[in-house]
Design brief:
Blueprint (H helix, E strand, L loop, with lengths): L2 H5 L8 H20 L5 H13 L1 E3 H8 L3 H13 L3 E5 L7 E5 L1 H10 L2 H9 L3 H22 L4
Antiparallel strand pairs: 1-3, 2-3
């Protein structure tokens, strides 16, 4: 192996590292805003889906958030304990768990509405740069998930 081959192992040559560090920093930036709502980042993304859909199965929710049930279940229990959502088994099929937004959960949406623009200001990208980052990030995610499922 040549030194050039080993250059691939340098941290500064990895796309994964700035994505990892940026993701960590982005979640940290949400901290003060979410603390005011008494939410963690994972609870916040669950609430965003519910503000959009109001009712969803736990399977659909896990898929949309790219979370496994082991991660999602305690988050849902906590949010249910806070009174923001309900969890109910389907009468037709006990395996289906339906997640529904409560009035209390709807009310915190008004407090959360300013968060995305505050975070966008912190990121400091132009609208075009932000849209490019969004598009490329989702493209990479799709490609990796497709590859992991044997689709490529």
């Amino acid at each position: 192996m040549s030194n050039k081959d080993y250059d691939r192992l340098k941290l500064d040559n990895q796309v994964c590292f700035p994505l990892y560090a940026c993701s960590k920093e982005l979640v940290r930036q949400y901290g003060p805003y979410l603390k005011a709502l008494d939410l963690t980042y994972t609870q916040y993304i669950v609430m965003m889906v519910l503000w959009e859909d109001e009712q969803i199965s736990s399977k659909e929710l896990a898929g949309r958030l790219h979370l496994d049930y082991g991660t999602l279940t305690p988050v849902l229990k906590k949010l249910e304990g806070l009174g923001y959502l309900t969890r109910e088994r389907s009468d037709e099929d006990e395996r289906i768990l339906s997640i529904g937004l409560t009035d209390k959960g709807r009310k915190i949406k008004d407090k959360a509405v300013k968060i995305p623009s505050c975070i966008a200001d912190n990121v400091g990208l132009t609208r075009e740069e932000f849209e490019t980052l969004y598009r490329l990030t989702y493209k990479a995610l799709y490609n990796m998930e497709t590859s992991a499922k044997g689709g490529k």
